[in-house]
């Protein structure tokens, strides 16, 4: 910018802005409603909220996941105890979901190892492959061939038949 400025073209704002004076003695209704809202609605709600937060700050409770107590297995239920049957069925469904997630996590770890290692995946990801084979075999042994509508009773019967076959095979070896 040149040194010799044209002060008329570029007017400088005043150094002090004058404060506008009220022209009326009637109070502003907006200020009244803001004050009334603050004291009638906002202050009690804020007070209650802060009081609750102070009480909760003393007892920290962390929500990680829901923990269910273990219930008796279906084989431990008494005959005709339908509540025990229902709880055992719910426990079996939770266990099945947990086992499905375990298989999925191990599968994801193997996929990440294969992606990371590239052509060397067969020698560098051998532990993950072995773990996936063990986990899928255990899942297949327990839940395989049950289908979508499988339940705790059919799973228990499958385990019973497998144990009987293993016992029979062991007796035939001797």
From TrEMBL:
It is found in: Mitochondrion inner membrane. Residues 1-23 are annotated as: Disordered. It is a peripheral membrane protein. GO terms for cellular component: mitochondrial inner membrane; respiratory chain complex I. Keywords: Electron transport, Membrane, Mitochondrion, Mitochondrion inner membrane, Respiratory chain, Transport. InterPro entries: NADH_UbQ_OxRdtase_su10, NDUFB10. The keyword Mitochondrion applies. The keyword Transport applies. Belongs to the complex I NDUFB10 subunit family. Accessory subunit that is involved in the functional assembly of the mitochondrial respiratory chain complex I. Complex I has an NADH dehydrogenase activity with ubiquinone as an immediate electron acceptor and mediates the transfer of electrons from NADH to the respiratory chain. This is NADH dehydrogenase [ubiquinone] 1 beta subcomplex subunit 10. It comes from Callaeas wilsoni (North Island kokako).
């Amino acid at each position: 910018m040149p040194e010799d400025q044209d002060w008329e073209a570029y007017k400088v704002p005043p150094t002090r802005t004058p404060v506008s004076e009220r022209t009326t003695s009637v109070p502003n209704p907006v200020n009244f409603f803001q004050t009334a809202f603050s004291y009638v609605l906002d202050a009690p709600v804020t007070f209650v909220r802060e009081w609750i937060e102070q009480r909760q700050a003393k007892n920290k409770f962390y929500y990680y996941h829901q923990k269910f107590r273990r219930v008796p297995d279906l084989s431990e239920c008494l005959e005709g105890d339908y509540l025990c049957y229902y709880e055992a069925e719910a426990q079996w469904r939770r266990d099945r979901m947990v086992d499905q997630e375990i298989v999925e996590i191990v599968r994801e770890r193997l996929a990440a190892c294969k992606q990371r290692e590239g052509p060397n995946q067969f020698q560098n990801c051998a532990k993950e492959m072995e773990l996936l084979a063990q986990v899928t075999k255990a899942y297949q042994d327990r839940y395989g061939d049950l289908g979508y509508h499988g339940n705790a009773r059919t799973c228990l019967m499958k385990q019973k038949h497998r144990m009987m076959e293993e016992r029979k095979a062991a007796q035939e070896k001797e």
